[in-house]
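User: These chains co-purify. Model them together.
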Amino acid sequence: GENVEQHPSTLSVQEGDSAVIKCTYSDSASNYFPWYKQELGKRPQLIIDIRSNVGEKKDQRIAVTLNKTAKHFSLHITETQPEDSAVYFCAPEDRNSGYALNFGKGTSLLVTP
Amino acid sequence: NAGVTQTPKFQVLKTGQSMTLQCAQDMNHNSMYWYRQDPGMGLRLIYYSASEGTTDKGEVPNGYNVSRLNKREFSLRLESAAPSQTSVYFCASSEHGGSYSPLHFGNGTRLTVT
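Assistant: Joint model of the two components:
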């Protein structure tokens, strides 16, 4: 979507390594910052989200960190596994569109055994 | 619960034909959305319905119309299909349409316009 940038666009790591994807956004009014995972041919599914009053949230091997001042948030995956291979999207809320989510262009993550 | 159900799963149209994509959710969600997904473009919002009885344009509404038939159903209509509308279409719903409201997606409709 508009004014949401994700980096890198592709990422290749070896199994067991860590992966980090960064998302920058422009709407300072956004208060909700989710990450979605989409496997090939499937629908996007929520994997983790964070609210603006929290700096970091962790769920097993996945974590999200938020820097609201700098308007960016990041997805961290530790101990990567081949089943983590997918496209990941950041999707900060868009308060100008009924709180719809404004998706980045995606990061294609490949985890090689 | 089936969640969000979209029909059809696949469709091929000729330029100028019309069709309606159907979407229904059984989670009693207030808000519903239509996105399209093109390679390298992420998901782009076409239209949304924040609550029953309301609809609004998103980022890429041209060539589409929507109807929020009731709380459960939100349809997307292509009146005169064009090759540029070849895409995968996803319907989604959220509980209350306010902040902190994750989207739940259907399985998508793959549309080809020749």
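Chain A has a mean pLDDT of 94.
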